[in-house]
Amino acid sequence: MEYHNPVLLKESVDGLNIKPDGVYVDVTFGGGGHSKEILSRLNDQGKLFAFDQDADALENALDDSRFTLIHENFRYIKRFLRFHGVKKVDGILADFGVSSHQFDVAERGFSTRFEADLDMRMNQSSVLSAFNVVNEYDEERLKNVFYQYGELRAAPAMARLIVEYRETVESIVTSEQLKTVLKKFLPPRHANKVLAQIYQAIRIEVNQEIEVLKEFLMQTPELLNEQGRLSFISYHSLEDRLVKRFIRNGMFEGEPERDIFGNFEVPLKKVNGLIVPSKAEIKENNRARSAKLRLAEKR
């Protein structure tokens, strides 16, 4: 199965500060690029567990006695590590977002480049697809999806137009139909950018990406050994904001409680500042252009 180069490979794995006999988790296995790099730094006692909900990724499973691939969504990380007898780990790596492979397989419906049925499911056995979101959500719910997850100012008008079209003309089945319906919002100079925001919004809703990320992040401090590391790569501001806030405050809203001296205890401390790909990496791998890497350590 053809997968592209992993983004920020050296930086993200260096950030885990790997102990050769440690236990690590790659929660977004995909083509296995990050996992292979982690394994190359482990000795015979080291262990690596990987998660991927996409059945296509199972074809890339690594033949290594130190490696276990779990075919599940990483929102269930604690439950499935416990199932394998693991309560604590030394590091967790995540490369959020859609894999290059998912973008490149036209019929999965993730890419704006291809005509395809509205799908966008990372887990192909999920019930909710892009078709359901576009054709079954009411105007208010659709508006919220576009506004919250696509950060689209024209969200109310887009939602109204979709609902009118499907009620008076026909269901919107393919990506090309969706583009045609929303054509007035796609001026030639900005069409690709706006379309990417529309697709992002629908995809996040279909895969519950924000809820999944929050559930996952909340479990990580408890899973880490002392001085264990988190290494997270995000591709859009919604994800990156959540990761940044969680590392800083241990929560997503508000501020943690302070003690009588005005200090607050949070489970993590950030390591280094924001890391972004070099110009050379972006030139070689276009997918890297919006990547942001943040590292944290268990106090």
Structure description:
There is one protein chain. The protein has 299 residues and is an alpha/beta fold. The chain has a 7-stranded mixed beta sheet, with helices on both faces. The protein is built from 12 helices and 7 strands. Helix content is 38%, strand content 15%. It folds into 2 domains: 9-100 and 210-298, Rossmann fold; 127-206, Putative methyltransferase TM0872, insert domain (DNA polymerase, domain 1), CATH 1.10.150.170. The relative contact order is 0.14.
Secondary structure elements and pairings:
Blueprint: H1 9-14, E1 23-26, H2 33-39, E2 47-51, E3 67-70, H3 77-83, E4 89-95, H4 100-104, H5 130-136, H6 139-150, H7 155-168, H8 175-181, H9 191-206, H10 209-223, E5 224-234, H11 237-249, E6 268-275, H12 279-284, E7 292-298
Parallel strand pairs: 1-2, 1-4, 2-3, 4-5
Antiparallel strand pairs: 5-7, 6-7
Short account of what is shown:
The protein is an alpha/beta fold.
CATH architecture of the largest domain: 3-Layer(aba) Sandwich
Taking Cα atoms only, what radius of gyration do you get, to the nearest Å? Answer: 20 Å
- SSE string: HEHEEHEHHHHHHHEHEHE
Proportion of helical residues? 25-40%
Give the spatial strand order of the biggest sheet: 3-2-1-4-5-7-6
Q: State the fourth-level CATH superfamily of the largest domain.
A: Vaccinia Virus protein VP39
> Segments where pLDDT lies below 50 for 5+ residues?
none
The number of distinct helices, counting runs of at least 4 residues, comes to 12
Number of strands: 7
